[in-house]
Specification:
The protein is mostly beta strands. About 5% of the residues lie in helices and about 40% in strands. Strands 1-3-4-6-5 form a five-stranded mixed β-barrel. Strand 5 and strand 6 form a beta hairpin. It is globular, with a radius of gyration of 16 Å.
Length: about 150
């Protein structure tokens, strides 16, 4: 069985970087991904919630800001929790294990010299083990932006 997601889009807001009680970095952000456009139709987009951990979270918060193009590789994860009013909330999000600058610039042209990249020494970040179980890492439901 396979659970693999690849997104390319723009950040809708600056990533929110936090640390768990044990000091692990976690960033939450939303990627706006354009849907394929139908002839003579208005452009539509999907807004995908993403969570990045450890080095990926720190890399993202250092080099990406609202409006920046980003490529995310990860897996879809679902979870539930009870909100402050006792209502059950269902969440679907992408857990990122690789974050990159996309291969195209804002104008859609290929960037051969890398001038659109903000990071010079490093242009992507990956969690050491993309299949590490992060379910034991606790974040308060109040901390989540969605």
């Amino acid at each position: 069985m396979l659970n693999l997601t690849i997104l390319e889009g723009r950040l809708t807001r600056d990533p929110e970087l936090r640390k768990t009680q044990s000091g692990i970095a976690v960033a939450t952000f939303t990627v706006a991904c354009d849907r394929p456009r139908k002839k003579d139709a208005e452009q539509q987009a999907d807004f995908i919630n993403v969570v990045a951990w450890r080095q990926s979270a720190e890399f993202l918060s250092n080099y990406f800001h609202k409006g920046d193009a980003v490529q995310v590789q990860g897996r879809i994860q679902t979870r539930t929790y009870d909100d402050k009013n006792g209502n059950k909330v269902f969440v679907t999000e992408v857990v990122a294990y690789n974050i990159n600058f996309p291969l195209t610039s804002k104008s859609g042209n290929n960037s051969s010299n890398g001038s659109t990249n903000k990071a010079t020494a490093q242009n992507s970040a990956a969690v050491e083990d993309p299949f590490v179980d992060t379910s034991s890492v606790e974040i308060s439901d109040d901390d989540l932006p969605f």
